[in-house]
Amino acid sequence: MMNKTGDAPATGAIVARGLTVVRGDRAVLRGIDFTVPPGRITGLLGPSGCGKTTLMRAVVGTQAKVTGTLDVLGRPAGDADLRSRIGYVTQDPSVYDDLTVHQNLDYFAAVLFPGRARREERRTAVERAITDVDLASHAHDLAGRLSGGQRSRVSLAVALLGTPELLVLDEPTVGLDPVLRRDLWNLFHRIAADRGTTLLVSSHVMDEAERCHRLLLMREGEILAEDTPEDLRRRNDAATVEQAFLHLVDAADARAEEADGAARASEAAGHAARPVHEEHQP
């Protein structure tokens, strides 16, 4: 996925062109194009199984067998230079249950900032991350005894340790109650506004679309729309993003059915045009 030498630099925090992932005999991502603007929250929305997690894994450089072009923060996805510049939070919290919140962060900070000379840098990063996710009152609690929402915030704190330029969050609010979801989204907006961090946040909950600056709507490995929530509603004459999404799905299904019907008609016409040879009689 390397750019050719001499190509003009890509614009946008993430730029994909012809991004394709094939798993077995199935195309999980089907030659998609999209751009994620810097310093904004882009929502990646679509039903479960549509390819959101595969796309995110491609962005952070952990997805195998990716073809096409994918530039992240001006570098090819997976470039070693990007490791300290990207924070990635998976669907399952990445924490050690037998360590406290503080101990978890101390451990990951030691990986990011190794050596005695960086001890103060580690301490500052840990305290800042704990404050960012509002877990100061639980800093010395075992991670295994936290609620699901609190564990998710510990994973987010780990991702924030290095003050990343890009945060990739795979369904971070799944299973959370409305209050916790609201608090996390408020945190996402503070991170984007105060630090200029780019966030790519996936969800299958359509009402979360309204909290994003920009949207990528996915279905069956394809991008149905790339727009702001306001323009998406306006272009589809819809009151909500969910209604706009369903309108786009119906339109895509109608096009696919029309194309399939045309293909069948063409095949039938081809059969009808073939000459019929009578069997030779002796």
UniProtKB/TrEMBL annotation:
Pfam families: ABC_tran. PANTHER family: ABC TRANSPORTER G FAMILY MEMBER 20 ISOFORM X1, ATP-BINDING CASSETTE, SUB-FAMILY H, MEMBER 1. This is ABC transporter ATP-binding protein. PROSITE patterns: ABC_TRANSPORTER_1 (PS00211), ABC_TRANSPORTER_2 (PS50893). The lineage of its organism: Bacteria, Bacillati, Actinomycetota, Actinomycetes, Kitasatosporales. It comes from Streptomyces solicathayae. GO terms for molecular function: ATP binding. Residues 256-282 are annotated as: Disordered. Residues 262-273 have a biased composition (Low complexity). The keyword Glycosyltransferase does not apply. Keywords: ATP-binding, Nucleotide-binding. Residues 14-245 form the ABC transporter domain.
